Structure formats: C-alpha cells, structure tokens
Amino acid sequence: AVSYNDVAAFVSMPLSSSHIESNSSDDDEESKSFPMKKLAIVMVGLPARGKTHIARYIARYLNWLGRTTRVFNVGNYRRELVGASQPAQFFDPNNQEGRQARWELAIKCLDDMIAWLKHQHGQVGIYDATNNTKERRKYVKERLEAECIRVLFLESICEDKSIIEHNVMETKLRMPDYQNMDPETAVEDFQRRIANYEVANETIEDDEMVSYIKIINLGRTIVLHQLTGYLQGKLVSYLMNMHTLPRSIYLTRHGESEYNVEERLGGDPELTPKGQLYAVQLAQYIHKEFTAQGKELPLIWTSQLRRSRHTVQFIPTHNICWRALNEINAGLCEGKTLNDVKQLYPKIYEDRMKDKLHFRYPGGESYVDVIQRLEPVMLEMERLRESILIVSHNAVIRAIYGFLIGKRQEECPNLEVPLHVVIKLTPRAYGCEEARIELNPHEELLSDSPSAPSSNVYSDAIPKQVYFGSSENSFSDGNKN
Ligand code: ATP
C-alpha cells in the first residue's frame, strides 16, 4: 500500500525528465516554429484501449512537423512513486488510500505538463491518463483553460474483446508491473484492473461542452465534435490513416551514382557499375524477403531521378515515382562539390554548417522544405496496409527515417543513412523495430557488368513506372546533404 507521506513527498518534487515520454531536445531550446496557441490533448479511455500508442503516434508526427510535443504519462509517475508491482486492488475505486494516491499523481503529472507548456517552450502536451469520468475531465479542462491552453479530448473506445486481449498480451505483459509474474496471472490481474475502471467509466458526452475526437474500434468509426483550428484538422487526417496491421517499411538510398564518386551535389547522374550491382543485390534481397516466402512484393516508391528509378530496375513490379521523393534541391550549388562551395561561396558554406535544418540553398531548398513536401507522402504511407520499399536520396531518406522512428526535425539532418544499406522498420506498439541490412556490393563482383540478378529470377522483368506529380527533374541529389 502507498502512504500519503510518500505521495506528498513525490508530488512536491520538481519535474523529472524520466516521467516524460519524449525524445525532445533540451527544454530551454527556442522553438523555431511560428508561434501558436498552446494545445493540450487529453487522452480518455479504459486501460488497454491504445491511449499510449495513439499519444506517441501523435507526438511523433507533431515533433517531426516542428511542433514541440511531449507525452505526460500518469502511469510512469505511478510506477516511479509507488513501484510497478501494485495489485489490481490498488485501482479499486473503493480503496480510499489508492484512490487518493492516484488522484495526487494525476495532478502532479498535469501540473508538470502545464509548467512545461507555459514556461519551457512546449507547444503541444499530451496528457496520457484514463480521464474516464466527467468529474475528472471537468477538473482537467478547467485547469488548462485557466492557463489559456486549448483543450482537445481524444477518447479511444474499444468494445471488441479480442482486440483488448491482444493489446494486453502485446503490451501489458511486458510492463514492469508484471515482471516475474506468469502470463496467465498477469492477464487476470490486468483484466481485474480494467474491471475496476469500468465501474465508474463515462464516455464523453456533448453536454460536457468540449472539443473531442472519439476513435471507436481501432478507427472503424471516428466521431468529431467542435473541432477548430489548423492543427486539429491536421490531426484528424493523420488519425484517420492510423492502423495497427503488421507490415514493414523498407528504406534505402539509390545505388552509388557518378556524382557520389565525384562528391558532387545535385544533377541527375546515372548509377556507377557498383550502384548497378547494388540494384541487383536489392532485387535479390527483396526476392528473398517476399517472393521466396510466398508473400506479395511490396509497393515500390522511388523519386523521379534516374539513380533512384534504376536502383529498382530488377524488381519485377511497377514502381511509383514521386516528385516529392526527389533529393533536396541544392539551387546555386547544384553540380558543385562541397569543396567548391567552400571556395566559391564561403558564406553559404558557413550558414549551412551553422544550421543545417533551416539553411536553404539559394534558389533551392532547406531540410524544412523537404519535410513539408514529404508530409502528404507520409500520410499515404501511413494509410496503406501493404509493405513499402522506398528508394530515394540522402536528405529525403533521413527525413522519412526520422518520421518513422520519432525524431524531431532538428535531428533529421544528422541521421546516419549510408549508401547500400536497407533499413527495415516494422511498426510495433509504441514504436518501430529496426533492422539494417548491409548489402555492400563488393569490388570483385564488378568484373561482370551486372544486368540482372545472378539467379536470373528477374531476367524477364520490364519495370513499369508511374509518375506522381510533374516528371520534370528540377530537383537534385547530393550525398553531402
Ligand atoms: P493503459 O491505460 O493501461 O496505459 P492504454 O489505453 O494506454 O492502456 P496501450 O498501452 O496504448 O493502451 O495499448 C497498446 C495497444 O493498443 C497496442 O497493441 C496497439 O496495437 C493497440 N491500439 C492502438 N490503437 C488502438 C485503438 N484505437 N483501439 C484499441 N487498441 C489500439
């Protein structure tokens, strides 16, 4: 059992980063985005309804779009103070002591979120707790509105017992709460915990006079009420694309190009023999991963530039060529090496070194521009149920990879994405599982100029390419971006 003294001591502690779920950078870092009214997204729902999953899913998107977002998870506060191994009785509404302790922890978590939004440049706080009674929501709303913070409630409702059971098995058994407990006992305990919350559960009603989104049965139904504002509209289209079906996203840069060898930015160069060999190896890898296992080939997305399209030439399916997947446009610096840029335009070189994210090549693009043009592609990627192979360029793959693994914009320009490596990302509850497959085309294999996979499995392949957007190649490459 928890003593009030423990709780009292804990709630007076300053904000601790261990309670916060975020990969955000330091609090005192100035946000570079345009000013906006602070927004609090208040999660609502019984346990195992995907609240934490949805909260992190939203945080990942908003941080990538440059909105400093954090998840404040009451469960983490509880585990920190009272320890992870509280029995279901702790959550029993008739247990006065447990109830009081949970209430105070919830308030401490809310206080921390308000402090972060008000004083530490936070833009969107996500309050991840059950908040499943009218009384609790009224309190939270009044506290937030008193601080001029806009409030959006987001309720996840799920009546499908098999989904809930799957959620408990997938996520709850791995929680510190159930370490060293046999799975059967753990599931029973968690079901009792849910039952305790069900006693008092109240879904959001219109008479509460709040803005809300309800996601019912994994998004089969979505209800919107009194939503206003740009960001809320964006969130709705993002959430409408959310699903939890199993699949993987494969990311890779094109094979080595002539400009990679010369260390030049931009242009539309061809693959080198080594790059072509990578195209063969990539086709073999995809064959092994899909066809050989009786699975359908993944969707293939490339940019409209030759080195990217030609990297998938041996995979026997059509590819979609997105203009939005073209490399960052280096403008004035197209075709130059970084050394040329340093000599010819020292100021440009310096500016880029100082702030790679916001630096825009004269007549070209910045990383922020690239992220913005990628947003519709990311929404489409989220919507689709199939596995996808994306073959693109350094800056673009960094941005997509950053999106998938939940990086903030600032981190994207420095992510490690070498040539000739496939990054396989498999979405799981709360995040992505990552594997890196190094294909490394070896010099000794280059004597036979590659034209098709050595196993000849794709010798009859005539790849079809579908263009999205204009096909004019106005963007450029640069392995230095
Ligand atoms: P708790 O209140 O105990 O923290 P929770 O509501 O936060 O529980 P999660 O821990 O997020 O629940 O549950 C994660 C599981 O929920 C994952 O298996 C995920 O696939 C699943 N999930 C994701 N979205 C939904 C949804 N809209 N409805 C039901 N389950 C979902």
TrEMBL record:
<keyword id="KW-0418">Kinase</keyword>
<keyword id="KW-0067">ATP-binding</keyword>
<dbReference type="InterPro" id="IPR027417">
    <property type="entry name" value="P-loop_NTPase"/>
</dbReference>
<feature type="binding site">
    <location>
        <position position="307"/>
    </location>
    <ligand>
        <name>substrate</name>
    </ligand>
</feature>
<dbReference type="GO" id="GO:0005829">
    <property type="term" value="C:cytosol"/>
</dbReference>
<feature type="domain" description="6-phosphofructo-2-kinase">
    <location>
        <begin position="32"/>
        <end position="245"/>
    </location>
</feature>
<dbReference type="GO" id="GO:0003873">
    <property type="term" value="F:6-phosphofructo-2-kinase activity"/>
</dbReference>
<keyword id="KW-0547">Nucleotide-binding</keyword>
<feature type="binding site">
    <location>
        <begin position="253"/>
        <end position="260"/>
    </location>
    <ligand>
        <name>substrate</name>
    </ligand>
</feature>
<keyword id="KW-0808">Transferase</keyword>
<dbReference type="InterPro" id="IPR013078">
    <property type="entry name" value="His_Pase_superF_clade-1"/>
</dbReference>
<dbReference type="InterPro" id="IPR003094">
    <property type="entry name" value="6Pfruct_kin"/>
</dbReference>
<dbReference type="InterPro" id="IPR029033">
    <property type="entry name" value="His_PPase_superfam"/>
</dbReference>
<dbReference type="GO" id="GO:0004331">
    <property type="term" value="F:fructose-2,6-bisphosphate 2-phosphatase activity"/>
</dbReference>
<dbReference type="InterPro" id="IPR013079">
    <property type="entry name" value="6Phosfructo_kin"/>
</dbReference>
<dbReference type="Pfam" id="PF00300">
    <property type="entry name" value="His_Phos_1"/>
</dbReference>
<keyword id="KW-0378">Hydrolase</keyword>
<dbReference type="Pfam" id="PF01591">
    <property type="entry name" value="6PF2K"/>
</dbReference>
<dbReference type="GO" id="GO:0006000">
    <property type="term" value="P:fructose metabolic process"/>
</dbReference>
<protein>
    <submittedName>
        <fullName>Bifunctional 6-phosphofructo-2-kinase / fructose-2,6-bisphosphatase</fullName>
        <ecNumber>2.7.1.105</ecNumber>
        <ecNumber>3.1.3.46</ecNumber>
    </submittedName>
</protein>
<dbReference type="GO" id="GO:0005524">
    <property type="term" value="F:ATP binding"/>
</dbReference>
<dbReference type="InterPro" id="IPR001345">
    <property type="entry name" value="PG/BPGM_mutase_AS"/>
</dbReference>
<dbReference type="GO" id="GO:0006003">
    <property type="term" value="P:fructose 2,6-bisphosphate metabolic process"/>
</dbReference>
